[in-house]
Design a protein that fits this description.
CATH class of the largest domain: Alpha Beta
Helix content: 55-70%
Order of helices and strands: HHHEHHEHEHEEEHHHHHHEEH
Strand content: 5-15%
CATH architecture of the largest domain: 2-Layer Sandwich
Distance between the termini: 88 Å
CATH superfamily of the largest domain: Beta Polymerase, domain 2
Strand order of the largest sheet: 1-2-6-5-3-4
Number of helices: 14
Largest sheet: 6 strands, mixed
Structural class: alpha/beta
Number of strands: 8
Radius of gyration: 34 Å
Length: about 350
């Protein structure tokens, strides 16, 4: 509605004349506030866009949404908030054109959504280093782990509805006038739950008991999904790091093989013996390159070390021992060796399958 029509407005927002009378609220003042806010709203939209674009520069943030409060929603909020303001500021308190922008801190609302729970801390650091934060509140579900919030001296608001989100009140001065905005940070799962909960509760605040119970059940499912997503993300990171480590080790070992091949070429050996060694070394490199991949680290690194020592010894010796060489080659590419391998620190201990069969 472009203009406030008292009867229609009160009916739409489930308010009544008694609320206005009990709190001595002037309808004419509310109309003045409404008109003033409509006039200044475009400037607030520009400022909301600036905050949102700044947040989008952070790589840990998946999605950013911004809004400036709807004028009618603002008036309804002023009516509902007047009673509590009188309790804290005195019975003479009233919202006016001069004070409503300072009293209502979510005229500008920006929501930053991230995927994994562990990303919150870096987003928190980004916000606190970018703007002057005048208040931070962590809305949590009863029973949630709040140790990190306690470490950072963040106020905790435990919600029995299960609502989860970290709220920041920031202030800045695009002009001489101070502007306050609210930034809400939550995971993509918390966003989904929050939107559903809001749709069911707003603007009345209460829902039937059967809906409330099902919302709590839904909230537990959402919380579990959040934890599972974070676990999968950590697992992926560890798995990728393991793969990269194996790829690096295999590359180093292949480089060693290439150096050995260079020594073989220069060695005073029979051509046939050289060919046997070179063919075996090429086979090892080919085999290693074919087994690189996540979940497939089948490399007998201890066998590599034996190979280096063996071939170096054969090159410097007077006689090439084909039998010894073939045994070492087999130890490197024999998957049974890796199957029985155990990792200790940075070394891999390999148990000879022949020894297992002897027992």
């Amino acid at each position: 509605m472009s203009k406030l029509i008292k009867e229609d407005f009160l009916k739409e927002y489930h308010l009544n004349e008694q609320m206005l009378a009990e709190n001595n609220i002037s309808w004419e003042m509310l109309k003045d506030i409404h008109s003033h806010f409509v006039e200044t709203r475009e400037a607030l939209i520009t400022q909301a866009d600036f905050i949102a674009n700044t947040l989008r520069s952070n790589n840990h943030i998946h999605t950013v949404r911004s809004r400036v409060k709807d004028p009618e929603h603002l008036i309804a909020k002023l009516i509902r908030k007047t009673a509590t303001r009188k309790e804290t500021k005195g019975n003479d308190f009233q919202f006016t054109v001069d004070n409503y922008q300072d009293e209502i801190t979510d005229l500008i609302g920006v929501r930053a959504i991230h995927i994994f729970k562990e990303e919150w801390e870096s987003i928190h650091q980004f916000i606190t280093s970018t703007w002057k934060v005048i208040e931070t509140t962590a809305n949590v579900r009863e029973g949630d782990d709040t140790r990190k919030f306690n470490e950072l001296n963040i106020t905790i608001d435990s919600r029995n509805t299960g609502y989860r989100s970290v709220h920041y009140l920031i202030e800045f001065h695009p002009t001489n006038k101070r502007v306050v905005a609210e930034i809400q940070v939550r995971t993509i799962f918390e966003e989904g739950y929050g939107e559903i909960d809001h749709q069911l509760r707003y603007p009345h605040g209460q829902v039937p008991e059967v809906l409330a119970l099902n919302l709590l059940l839904f909230n537990r499912i959402v919380g579990s999904a959040d934890e599972m997503a974070s676990f999968i993300n950590i697992l992926k990171k560890n798995w990728t790091a393991t793969e990269e480590r194996y790829e690096s080790i295999i590359k180093d070992k292949n480089d060693e093989i290439e150096k050995l091949k260079s020594k073989v070429r220069k060695a005073n050996m029979k051509a046939g013996d050289k060919q046997v060694i070179m063919s075996g070394l090429d086979g090892i490199i080919t085999n290693n390159n074919s087994i690189i991949g996540i979940g497939n680290p089948k490399v007998n690194f201890a066998g590599y070390d034996s190979l280096v020592k063996s071939i170096s010894g054969e090159i410097t010796g007077s006689v090439f021992n084909t039998s010894n060489y073939n045994n070492v080659i087999s130890s490197v590419i024999n998957p049974e060796y890796f199957k029985n391998a155990s990792i200790t620190g940075a070394q891999i201990k390999v148990n000879d399958p022949k020894d297992s069969k002897k027992k």
